[in-house]
């Protein structure tokens, strides 16, 4: 099974181009940060309440990226809420995305494509090889929204983060999303870290002044 950050990365990459989908970068950054925190929570390393995120166990998970973040949380002497850690980790999201993508390359799920522009500027893309793993994630998201039962906590997390980073409209049509709006909001209220991710995205985007067209 892929990790939560790996599944979120697949959802935020264009299948063929291997570049980030056309949504605000801050949404993807915060979703990746939230995915890391939620993976740690589901592995019983951290937990969160309304006002604080705290360590449950310092035992390594065996995942280098998760263990690095866990060590960072443990080393901090002050108590912070989940929104604080989402914002802190989002600043390193570019590095995290590259590391997660390289793991998916090793697993032969993505392929690395290096490109050069004018011999000076390099860029890297990660198109999918087969797409089966992403289709599986999307299938689970659809099932969670259409089924009235209580879903697996992991699938609630994936759904919440997919909504936060703005990729649900790549999975369901506008009409389908409207029909499941109530179910979506109900499930998202069950995920405290997911709520922190959404709140952090809103706060950051609200702090950016709107662009004003120049007066001609």
Can I get a quick summary?
The chain is built from ten helices and four strands, in the order ααββαααββααααα.
- Spatially, the strands of the biggest sheet line up as 1-2
CATH class: Mainly Alpha
Helix content: 40-55%
User: How do the helices and strands follow one another from N- to C-terminus?
Assistant: HHEEHHHEEHHHHH
**Strand composition percent:** 5-15%
Radius of gyration: 18 Å
Coarse morphology:
globular
CATH superfamily: yeast vps74-n-term truncation variant domain like
Number of helices: 10
Instruction: Return residue spans where pLDDT drops below 50 for at least 5 consecutive residues.
Output: 208-216
The third-level CATH topology is yeast vps74-n-term truncation variant fold
Q: Quaternary arrangement of the chains shown?
A: single chain
Broad structural category: mainly alpha
Alpha-carbon distance between the termini? 56 Å
Q: What is the CATH architecture assignment? A: Orthogonal Bundle
Taken together, the total number of domains comes to 1
Mean pLDDT: 86
Q: How many DSSP-defined strands?
A: 4
Mind summarizing the main beta sheet? 2 strands, antiparallel
Record keyword descriptors for this entry:
4 strands, two-stranded antiparallel sheet, yeast vps74-n-term truncation variant fold, 7% strand, disordered C terminus, single chain, mainly alpha, globular, 10 helices, 216 residues
What are the SSEs and their pairings?
Elements: H1 4-11, H2 25-42, E1 46-48, E2 53-55, H3 64-75, H4 82-90, H5 93-106, E3 113-117, E4 121-125, H6 132-146, H7 153-164, H8 174-179, H9 181-188, H10 192-207
Antiparallel strand pairs: 1-2, 3-4
């Amino acid at each position: 099974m892929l990790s939560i950050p790996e599944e979120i990365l697949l959802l935020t990459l264009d299948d063929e181009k291997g570049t980030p989908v056309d949504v605000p970068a801050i949404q993807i950054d915060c979703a990746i940060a939230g995915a890391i925190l939620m993976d740690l929570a589901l592995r019983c390393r951290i937990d969160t309440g309304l006002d604080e995120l705290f360590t449950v166990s310092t035992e390594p998970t065996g995942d280098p990226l998760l263990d690095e973040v866990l060590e960072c949380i443990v080393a901090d002497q002050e108590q912070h809420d989940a929104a604080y850690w989402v914002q802190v980790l989002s600043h390193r999201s570019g590095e995290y995305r590259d590391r997660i993508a390289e793991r998916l390359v090793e697993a032969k799920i993505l392929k690395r494509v290096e490109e050069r522009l004018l011999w000076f500027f390099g860029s890297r893309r990660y198109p999918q090889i087969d797409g089966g793993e992403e289709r599986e994630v999307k299938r689970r998201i659809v099932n969670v929204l259409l089924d009235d039962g209580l879903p697996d906590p992991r699938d609630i997390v994936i759904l919440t983060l997919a909504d936060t980073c703005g990729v649900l409209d790549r999975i369901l049509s506008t009409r389908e999303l409207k029909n499941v709006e109530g179910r979506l909001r109900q499930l998202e209220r069950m995920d405290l870290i997911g709520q922190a991710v959404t709140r952090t995205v809103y706060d950051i985007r609200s702090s950016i002044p709107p662009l004003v067209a120049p007066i001609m």
